[in-house]
Design brief:
Structural class: alpha+beta
CATH topology of the largest domain: Endonuclease I-creI
Strand order of the largest sheet: 1-2-4-3
Order of helices and strands: HHEEHEEHHEEHEEHHHHH
Helix content: 55-70%
CATH superfamily of the largest domain: Homing endonucleases
Radius of gyration: 35 Å
Largest sheet: 4 strands, antiparallel
Number of helices: 11
Mean pLDDT: 88
Strand content: 15-25%
Distance between the termini: 77 Å
Number of domains: 2
Amino acid sequence: MSFSHDARNEIARIIPEKRCCQIAELSALVGMRADISPNRDGVLTLYTTMENAAQARKAYTLLKDTFGLSSTVHILQKKRFKKSRIYRVETPLDSAEGSVLLQELGQLGSEIKRQVHWKAIRKNCCKRAFLRGVFTSSGFVNRPEGNYHLEIVFNDSRMAADVLKVMNKLDLDARLTERKNNLLIYIKESERIVDFLRLVEASNALLDFENVRIIKSMRNQVNRQVNCETANLGKTIDASVRQVEMIKRIVARVGVKGISPHLRELAMLRLDHPDSSLKELGLMLDPPLTKSGVAYRMAKLEKVSDTIDQLE
């Protein structure tokens, strides 16, 4: 199973304890996945279509526990949501409980309103429950080993805009864009994805995400350090090659004794140790010199070389 599938299934098994949160989450499931139409007997019925059994079980449980409604679940073989099997929760609304359901969810009328019922999500706990329902219905989160990406797909612009407001009220820094015929809200920053998973209480997905994120961060840090050290080593070798060639030219023209005593020791050490850094050469000198001191003497040798070149 995919990381996204596991995350949705995890939160699909969470049943809020507070009734206000149950209503908030159910309003998301209905707003995202439900339709109202008469059944074969002409009874007005709420049809909530879900992707898998865990999500359908959640819709069934919330309808029963929160409003006392009896529903039936049907498994349909249909090419939808990139799957051949979907689950439809059918809930007759020809009862007092059905009327209370529609009123509590802000769905009075014969058609589902694709918008946030703001009265149901006044509290922060209800906002979190609402987002859990939205993500359960149509959310996706990338495996953290790849690029960081979380998205929720919508086919209604009002619902997408309302959900975006809810997410950004919780400082999730979400963005809205369009893909083909759908709208989608997305989050790219790993910290905000972690915040989202924490808000919807996807604890296992959050731990997995964080573990991979830490490993990626450590790997990137090691790679940066290795690249930096490799680059520095390359610079050291290039500089050493130039210095060795320069000293050989000086020796060939004026001899070793032609180099002043305070520069001679460094010149000989460079010839004997072409792979050493300036800091390492400084430690070999008697008395030892700092890296900057060695660099200063090496610059003096370069001036000697330039002077000899000009005389020729």
